[in-house]
Structures are given as structure tokens and as C-alpha cells.
């Protein structure tokens, strides 16, 4: 069986993207063949400041943004946390420090040259969504790069220049042409698209259909668990919230 290529548009600031990564990993484990992954850049908030706040009260932030009560917003967060925990992820919204992710995307593009892109993606998700690190800070990014086996001095050179900015913009332009409005967004074999953090079974079906050159299975986009510029779907039942 030939190697299957999967491109994933995502942002580090997207909790559904980390969940989608876990579900994709489960699909890959069950897949009868080899898979290569390429992580493409998508910025949920390109205008976000590179200065990460020390602390954010997310329940109050969501309540103010969507006109609900703090208790209602906390219920949405709790549902997201429960989905993550079912996959072995500990989402800590009480630690998250919202910040700009462009530098992190540049570093991911660079890491792909050395075969460490997926490892770095995982470390970035954990740093942002669990550890509460400021992932716009160059010293934080350099440390994460070193932890996955990349040269920290070379990473510093990348971060202190505009290296790989063009590649990040090209990912975003390509995503726009493909109609990527929310993430995660999976493109399998350059032909089959799956939007949202769909269950592993859905992803596996799409992967097998790509190999068999069969028509893609339909996916209910309205049920997609994903993040977009307007916010993230924190409630699998359909209620909207943003992070």
C-alpha cells in the first residue's frame, strides 16, 4: 500500500485541534499503511498581541463575549475539558495565556525540514493548553524546540529573523482557496477534506476511501468540533463559545 499524505490546517490556540490530533493518531494506528503528516498554518486571531497576559478568567471572558452568565460559560468549558480528558488530554483553561501564534507557526515550518514538525506541534499544544506558557516568547519557543531534538541556537536565528514567514502565509492562502474556515481541517491525499475534530472512525474511513479512490463519505459540517476566527465550538451539542 502506498504512503498516504495528510495535510492538517490548525492553530496552537485551538483546543479542538489538539483533540483532532489525538483522534487522527488513533485513525493512523488502525490504518493499514504508512502516513505522512504536514501541519499547515492557520491563525485564529492574526491581530492577537505577542504579549501574553499573566492570567485570564476564561469563564468571565466567554460570558462577556457571548452574553451568557459565568456559570453558563463554565459549563461550556467543562464540556470541552471532558472531551479532552476522554482522550488523555488535560486542558487547563485556567492557565491559558492568549497570544499571537505567528512565530510558533514559523518555527513549525522550519522544524519540518528536520522531521520534527509533529513532535514540535505536540509540545506547542501542551505548552499552550496545559502548561500555560507564553508561546509567543522566543525563549519559550527555543526551549520547546530543544526538547524535541532541534538545535536551540538555530531556532533562535529563525525566530529573530523573518524566516519561514512566507511559508506560513502560503499555507494560509492555500487554506483560503480550499475553503478552510475553521480548524482542524484535514486534506487527505490532496483530494478528500474532513472539517473539524471528527471521530477517529470518520477519519479512518476517509483515509481508506482515499487509498481505494472511492467517493468521499459525507461529513456533517454542522456537527464539526472546530475553531474559527469567531471562536471555538466548546459544546458538542452545538452551543458556541470562543477562546
Order of helices and strands: EHEHHHHHHHEEHEE
Strand residues, percent: 5-15%
Query: Helical residue percent?
Result: 40-55%
C-alpha Rg, in Å? Answer: 17 Å
| Helix count, DSSP H or I runs of 4 or more residues | 9
Report the major sheet.
Answer: 4 strands, mixed
What structural class do helix, strand and pairing data support? alpha+beta
Spans of at least 5 consecutive residues with low confidence:
218-223, 235-243
Mean pLDDT: 89
**CATH architecture verdict:** 3-Layer(aba) Sandwich
CATH homology superfamily name: Glutaredoxin
Number of domains: 1
Distance between the termini: 41 Å
Q: Name the CATH class.
A: Alpha Beta
Q: Got a strand count? A: 6
Strand order of the largest sheet: 2-1-3-4
Amino acid at each position: 500500500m502506498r504512503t498516504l499524505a495528510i495535510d492538517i490546517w490548525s492553530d496552537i490556540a485551538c483546543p479542538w485541534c489538539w483533540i483532532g490530533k489525538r483522534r487522527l493518531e488513533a485513525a493512523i494506528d488502525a490504518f493499514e499503511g504508512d502516513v505522512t503528516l504536514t501541519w499547515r498554518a492557520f491563525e485564529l486571531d492574526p491581530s492577537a498581541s505577542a504579549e501574553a497576559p499573566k492570567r485570564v478568567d476564561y469563564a468571565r471572558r466567554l460570558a462577556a463575549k457571548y452574553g451568557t452568565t459565568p456559570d453558563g460559560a463554565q459549563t461550556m468549558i467543562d464540556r470541552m475539558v471532558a472531551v479532552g480528558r476522554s482522550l488523555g488530554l488535560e486542558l487547563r483553561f485556567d492557565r491559558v495565556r492568549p497570544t499571537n501564534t505567528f512565530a510558533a507557526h514559523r518555527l513549525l515550518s522550519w522544524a519540518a525540514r528536520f522531521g520534527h514538525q509533529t513532535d514540535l506541534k505536540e509540545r506547542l499544544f501542551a505548552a499552550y493548553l496545559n502548561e500555560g506558557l507564553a508561546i509567543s516568547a522566543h525563549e519559550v519557543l527555543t526551549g520547546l524546540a530543544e526538547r524535541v531534538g532541534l538545535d536551540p541556537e538555530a531556532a533562535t536565528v529563525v525566530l529573530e529573523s523573518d524566516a519561514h514567514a512566507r511559508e506560513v502565509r502560503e499555507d494560509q492562502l492555500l487554506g483560503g482557496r480550499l475553503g478552510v474556515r475553521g480548524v482542524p481541517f484535514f486534506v487527505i491525499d490532496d483530494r478528500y477534506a474532513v472539517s473539524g475534530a471528527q471521530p477517529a472512525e470518520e477519519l479512518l474511513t476517509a483515509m481508506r476511501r482515499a487509498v481505494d479512490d472511492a467517493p468521499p463519505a459525507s461529513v456533517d459540517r454542522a456537527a464539526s468540533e472546530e475553531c474559527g476566527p469567531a471562536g471555538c465550538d466548546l459544546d458538542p451539542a452545538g452551543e458556541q463559545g470562543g477562546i
